[in-house]
Amino acid sequence: MDERWITPDWPAPVTVRAATTTRAGGVSAGPWASMNLADHVGDVAGAVAANRQRLVMRLALPVAPRWLTQVHGNRVIDTVDGSASTEADAMVAHAPGSVCAVLTADCLPVLLCDQAGREVAAAHAGWRGLAAGVLEQTVTRMHAPGRELLAWLGPAIGAAAYVVGEEVRSAFIGRDALAAEAFRPAADGGWHADLYALARRRLGNCGVTAVYGGDFCTCSDRERFYSYRRDGVTGRMASLVWLEAG
C-alpha cells in the first residue's frame, strides 16, 4: 500500500479509478507539510503547483483536475461544462477524459459511480453541505438511479472528535427526525455529530444503499491527515474519481 494515497475499498467497475491523498509525499512546509493541494489556505503558490503536478503524475490522471471553489453549498457542475462557474461543492462526469475532485480537511468527501462504470461524481460534504442536500443534488445529476450507484465515504472528522451546537443538530432533525440517531450528547452540552451516519442516511433516502468506507478520523490521525478543527492553519487532501476508457 502506498502511504501517499488511499485507494477506496469499494467494488467499483474496472473503468472507475479513485483515490484520496494523504498529507505525505509533497513539497509544502510548515503547517501545510507536505502534500497540500489547496491554493486558498496560505501555502506558497509554487509548492501547491508542484504538489498538483505530482498528483497528476503519480495517479496517472488523464488530465489535471478542474478544482472547485467550494462554498459548503449544494451546487453540482458537470466536468464537460467549461463555461460554468467553478463555485460548487460537487462534480459529475459521464465519460472518460476528465477528473472529479474535491478538497477536504475534516469535511466528508463522497465518491460515487454507477455499477456499469459509465459515470462518476465527487462531493464535498461538511455539515452545511449535507444539510443543504449536496448528496441529493449529486445523485440527481447522475443518469443511473440511486439503486444502481455505489458510494465511498472518504476521510472525515469522526464523531468522537466532532462536537457541534444545537443549531447543527436542528438543521438535520428538522427535516428528518430519525437523523437524531447520528447525534449523541457531549460533555460540554453540545453534540457529537457523526458525519458518516448522516451521509449514509441522506444517500439511503436517495436509494443509494451500496455505501462503503467511513472508518476514518482526520482529527485524530495527525500522521496521515490534515484537520482544520485540530490545527486551524493547515492543508487539504484531495479525493478524486475518474473514468478510464473501457
List the helices and strands and how they pair.
Blueprint: E1 5-6, E2 16-21, H1 45-58, E3 76-78, E4 90-93, E5 99-104, E6 108-114, E7 120-125, H2 127-132, H3 134-141, E8 149-153, E9 163-164, H4 166-173, E10 183-185, E11 191-193, H5 195-205, E12 210-213, H6 228-231, E13 237-243
Parallel strand pairs: 3-4, 8-12
Antiparallel strand pairs: 1-2, 2-13, 4-7, 5-13, 6-7, 6-8, 9-11, 10-11
Describe the structure.
The protein is α+β, with helices and mostly antiparallel strands and 246 residues long. It has one domain: CNF1/YfiH-like putative cysteine hydrolases (4-Layer Sandwich), CATH 3.60.140. The protein is built from six helices and 13 strands. The strands form three sheets. The protein has a six-stranded mixed beta sheet. Strands 1-2-13-5 form a four-stranded antiparallel beta sheet, with no helix packed on it. A hairpin with a 5-residue loop joins strand 6 and strand 7. The model has no long low-confidence stretch (mean pLDDT 97).
